[in-house]
Design a protein that fits this description.
Number of helices: 9
CATH class of the largest domain: Alpha Beta
Bound molecules: flavin-adenine dinucleotide
Largest sheet: 6 strands, mixed
CATH topology of the largest domain: FAD/NAD(P)-binding domain
Structural class: alpha/beta
Distance between the termini: 32 Å
CATH architecture of the largest domain: 3-Layer(bba) Sandwich
CATH superfamily of the largest domain: FAD/NAD(P)-binding domain
Strand order of the largest sheet: 5-2-1-9-21-20
Helix content: 25-40%
Number of domains: 2
Radius of gyration: 21 Å
Oligomer: single chain
Low-confidence stretches: none
């Protein structure tokens, strides 16, 4: 019987389970330290005054009970790729025939003086709890958000109603992944929502209670860093072949070494020379793809086609009622209430997909 081990039960890891659960006569193991699957794209919503983090975490017990998946609640720490072993942080080891690595990513914190000591990041539910604990939900509290990409814009938008928010972006506009018109729309909505936006200035230094930018400086009470992601540090200490940025070098099937795959944020996906941004949507597609590839190889001996993700869109919340982004392949721009509604629908669709993969009653 083939043993398939998945490291990380996020969008990619659980996505891989779909095709793998259809295989008979395989052993499925999930190595995942958490008690619940965190719906990370929903976490900015949880930061709003009446938001609850628990509403955005699906307990693994609920998903995996009575399935063929064995959940080992530990961190993976390293691998022996010759003996096909995963080492765990309790010093135990787990053998595998097929390995899927989907432990997500970490916030990338550059060596800006003072930043690490005081900045909150938002990468998981624990980070969200830390931020919520620091928030007072009053306009007298100034929250500085650094980074005007997807995470920074969503966080600034959610907090602006109840705080004095300042959003800082080094580039000359917000949301560089979107077209100019959509990025200007996001800018206007955030300003109308009460946020202050500073564009074209890098953060140089943090000297509490001040952030010092290239030209200006501002006082803050809570500082949130939303400046990008990087592969998990521990991956650097494993024998996996890595590129210069620390991503495992994978072929178009996500295969790094024979029968060792990556999926999700850890797979730096490039299709026809174009880098595909790491998102939950891509992670879920990549997980499903890698799971199908392994299922095909086990059942038919051939892997099937290589990975060509068809993204359904990119939607960004600007506050509790407005959003911006694009939908459908080719990119139809969308803004306002309809963008926000579609984003909410995409969250529900994802939950529906989970309930189908694990054959759970709806709603989850
Ligand atoms: C604030 C925020 C908002 C976002 N909004 C959107 C959005 O609107 N739309 C969108 O598509 N994307 C969004 N993203 C990006 C999206 O969340 C990620 O791309 C996605 O979660 C990646 O999925 P993954 O499966 O690779 O990793 P994750 O979903 O992060 O899952 C990784 C799992 O691995 C586990 N793990 C970590 N280390 C280990 C280890 N050593 N051993 C075992 N398990 C481990 C973790 O506990 C976790 O459960 C957002 C991200 C953030 C931070």
């Amino acid at each position: 019987m083939q043993k398939i081990v998945v490291v990380g039960g996020g969008y990619a890891g659980l996505g891989a389970m779909g095709p793998l659960l259809k295989l008979e006569d395989v052993e499925l193991v999930l190595i995942e330290p958490g008690t619940g699957h965190q719906l990370i794209p929903e976490l900015p919503e949880a930061l709003a005054k009446h938001g609850s983090i628990e509403n955005h975490v699906v307990p693994y017990d609920k998903l995996l009970a009575d399935t063929r998946v064995t959940h080992i609640r530990q961190y993976a720490t390293n691998f022996d790729l010759t003996r096909k072993l995963v080492f765990l942080d309790n010093s135990e080891q787990v053998s595998y025939d097929w390995l899927i690595l989907s432990p997500g990513s970490e916030p990338s914190l550059p060596p800006i003086p003072g930043l690490r000591e005081v900045a909150h990041t938002l990468r998981d539910a624990q980070d969200a709890r830390g931020i919520k604990d620091a928030l007072k939900y009053g306009k007298e509290q100034r929250v500085a958000v650094i980074g005007g990409g997807l995470t920074g814009v969503e966080v600034a938008g959610m907090l602006a109603e109840d705080h004095d928010v300042i959003l800082v972006e080094a580039f000359s506009r917000l949301l560089p992944a979107l077209g100019l018109g959509l990025s200007q729309y996001a800018y206007r909505r955030l300003i109308a929502g009460g946020a202050t936006i500073v564009l074209g200035q890098k953060l140089m230094r943090v000297k509490p209670p001040r952030i010092e930018l290239e030209k200006d400086h501002y006082e803050y009470d809570v500082l949130i860093w939303a400046g990008g992601i990087t592969p998990p540090q521990w991956i650097r200490y494993t024998p996996l072949p890595l590129d210069e940025r620390g991503y495992p070098k994978a072929n178009p099937y996500g295969e790094v070494l024979p029968q060792v795959f990556v999926a999700g944020d850890l797979w730096h996906v490039v299709v026809d020379g174009e880098e595909i941004p790491a998102t939950a949507q891509l992670a879920a597609l990549a997980g499903d793809f890698v799971g199908s590839t392994i299922a095909n190889r086990i059942a038919k001996g051939t892997p099937g086609p290589d990975f060509r993700p068809r993204l359904r869109g990119m939607l960004i919340s600007l506050d509790e009622g407005q959003g911006v982004g694009w939908v459908l392949h080719g990119g139809i721009p969308i803004r306002g209430f309809s963008a926000r509604t579609l984003k909410n629908m995409s969250f529900q669709q994802y939950r529906l997909k989970l309930s189908k993969i694990f054959d759970r009653p709806w709603p989850l």
